[in-house]
Write a structure and sequence with these properties.
6% strand; Four Helix Bundle (Hemerythrin (Met), subunit A); two-stranded parallel ribbon; 4 strands; 222 residues
């Protein structure tokens, strides 16, 4: 097993050229009393806001805008906690890795459960997508332990792109409502199919990356 303190972080995302300088600027202008733990708490607040907003869309679709704001707040806290620690040279590798990723798991559970409690996506379909996301998270964490490489982007997509897509889908839902199509099995919601498709991609990605990593380890004899 590799030393978690020396792992390499790989985050080759499409929005990286915009995100990285923005985070550096934010870290440089963050008040001294705001530490990485505060930013982690801000990220949790954003996820809770997403959860509550999705649930409240049962009463008013305008809460979709609040859900999108929650994604922005979640990005702000989740992305800046580690950046702030590195900028101030106050990293605590084991503590940071443990807290950051256990909290990330809680955040993603809140977000997907909130989506399943909305009137736009079935609870079962949302849970299926949640399982796919958690499987990918497990793969990332296990791979970090054995390869000393923390890879959180695949094909240029990472958590930041996922949040942007979620905000775009929220906007689309706001203006289109919950359209349905009629199939031989009955009426189905279009957004159920979209989320189910995302779940399928996550499952296939998990299987493909797992087999690829297993072959590489077998070749190396490790």
């Amino acid at each position: 097993m590799r030393d978690i303190k020396s792992h390499q972080r790989v985050n080759d995302i499409l929005l990286g050229p915009l995100e990285r300088p923005a985070l550096r600027w934010l870290a440089a202008h963050t008040p001294a009393w705001v530490n990485p733990d505060v930013m982690t708490a801000v990220g949790v607040f954003g996820a809770v806001l997403v959860f509550l907003s999705y649930w409240l869309t049962n009463y008013n679709k305008n809460f979709l805008w609040l859900a999108s704001l929650g994604f922005v707040i979640n990005w702000f806290g989740d992305s800046l906690d580690g950046t702030l620690a590195r900028y101030r040279h106050i990293e605590r590798p084991k503590y940071g890795f443990f807290v950051d990723h256990t909290v990330d798991s809680l955040n993603i559970v809140l977000i997907f459960l909130g989506l399943g409690l909305s009137p736009y996506v079935s609870f079962g379909v949302a849970c299926l997508a949640l399982i796919g996301y958690l499987l990918m998270s497990i793969l990332v964490y296990v791979r970090t332990c054995i390869m000393a490489e923390y890879k959180i982007s695949f094909g240029g997509f990472g958590p930041t792109e996922s949040r942007v897509i979620a905000i775009m889908v929220n906007t689309l839902i706001y203006f289109t409502g919950s359209p349905t199509i009629t199939l031989p099995i009955g009426k189905v919601r279009i957004f159920d199919w979209i989320v189910a498709g995302i779940a399928g991609i996550l499952f296939l990605l998990f299987i493909g990356q797992t087999l690829r990593q297993a072959r590489e380890l077998a070749r190396l004899g490790e």
